[in-house]
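for the recovery benchmark. tokens below, seq after
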């Protein structure tokens, strides 16, 4: 890494002001250059094919295609691609999904500028970069049983205010079966009621608004 062969960075985020700020920081840093910017995951896939950056800074929640989907899509074509997730979401499920998808680093948007540069250099060198606060959340996930695909479907319908009967109609099953799913969801999340379950799921990144 030097001024002649800088680390080539792709920035993916749906907020134009943030992209501009990152571009300015990266371009001022010796040995780094931003080669392109995308405002959604689908555009990120297209720009990655065109520019083949060394490191991609990827937001998680975006329109059209989210960050995890974009990472998976790019890694199917470019298995050696390297990603840093840069997001405001610090839930253990968000972190787990990003790492499982292939991200080598996970940073929160409140990080110091120097930490971002350290992460870019580390990931470019083939290393992982997981800050302590992120590692702590990831470790905590190990003691929390995950929700099944059907339990997630039920939870998302609870989140939009549907009753057990309405959920049963949507999922073509019985109200009694839905009640069983709700009991399991509350137990796994350690919640006392449906409202608390939704609140806890949002906080952990199990579901998003």
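predicted aa per position
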């Amino acid at each position: 890494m030097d001024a002649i062969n800088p680390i080539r960075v792709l920035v993916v985020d749906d907020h134009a002001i943030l992209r501009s700020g990152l571009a300015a920081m990266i371009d001022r840093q010796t040995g780094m250059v931003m080669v392109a910017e995308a405002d959604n995951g689908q555009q990120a896939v297209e720009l990655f094919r065109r520019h083949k950056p060394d490191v991609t800074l990827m937001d998680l929640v975006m329109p059209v295609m989210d960050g995890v989907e974009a990472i998976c899509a790019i890694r199917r074509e470019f298995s050696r691609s390297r990603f840093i997730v840069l997001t405001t979401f610090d839930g253990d499920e968000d972190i787990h999904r990003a790492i499982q998808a292939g991200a080598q680093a996970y940073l929160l948007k409140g990080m110091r500028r120097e930490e971002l540069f350290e992460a870019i250099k580390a990931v470019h060198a083939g290393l992982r970069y997981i800050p302590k606060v992120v590692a702590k959340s990831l470790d905590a996930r190990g003691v929390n049983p995950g929700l099944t695909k059907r339990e997630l479907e039920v939870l998302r319908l609870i989140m939009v205010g549907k009753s057990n009967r309405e959920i049963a109609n949507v999922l073509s099953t019985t109200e009694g079966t839905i009640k069983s799913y709700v009991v399991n969801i509350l137990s796994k999340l350690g919640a006392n009621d449906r409202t608390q379950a939704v609140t806890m799921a949002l906080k952990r990144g199990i579901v998003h608004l």
